[in-house]
Amino acid sequence: MAKASINWYSMNDPSILSQIGQFIQDSRLQQNKTQQQLADAAGISRSTVSQLELGNGTTLLSLIQILRVLGQLAVLQSFEIEQKISPLKLAKLEQQKRKRARRHQRPTNTINTDGNDW
C-alpha cells in the first residue's frame, strides 16, 4: 500500500492529533491487538488508548509507551540531533591527525653512583 505524503504544516492541531490517532489504531489493528491488550502492555488505561485513537490529546509519555509496545519508536527518528561540523573545523581536525608513527625511545640506562646494585 503506497503512503500518501501528508502536508503537516497545512493541518491544524486537531487534524494532526486525529492523524496520529489513526496511525496508532492502524498499527494496533495490524498487530491484532485490542485496546485493552495495548493498554495493559503499555501500563496505561484503555480509555487513554481510546482517547488517543479518537484524536483527543494525551500525554507525551503515554504516546511513547504506546509507540514502544507497537514497535513504532522509529517514528521519533526525526528528533535526532545531527552534530554538524563546519568545513573549517573539519579541515583543522584533518591537520591535527597523526600522519606518521614515531619510534619508541628506549629508556636510557642510568648510572648508579651510590655503589648499590639495586
Count of distinct strands: 0
Fold-level CATH name of the domain at 10-72? 434 Repressor (Amino-terminal Domain)
Could you describe the largest sheet, including whether it forms a barrel? none
| Distance, first to last CA | 82 Å
CATH architecture group name of the domain at 10-72: Orthogonal Bundle
Protein structure class: mainly alpha
* Average pLDDT reading: 85
Describe the 3D structure:
This protein is mostly helical and 118 residues long. The protein contains five helices and no strands. The N and C termini lie far apart (82 Å). The model has no long low-confidence stretch (mean pLDDT 85).
Structure, briefly:
By secondary structure, the chain is mainly alpha-helical. The protein has a domain at 10-72: 434 Repressor (Amino-terminal Domain), CATH 1.10.260. The protein is built from 5 helices and no strands.
Q: Descriptors for this entry?
A:
434 Repressor (Amino-terminal Domain); 47% helix; mainly alpha; 118 residues; 5 helices
What's the SSE blueprint?
Elements: H1 13-30, H2 35-42, H3 46-53, H4 60-70, H5 87-96
Helix pairs in contact: 2-3, 2-4
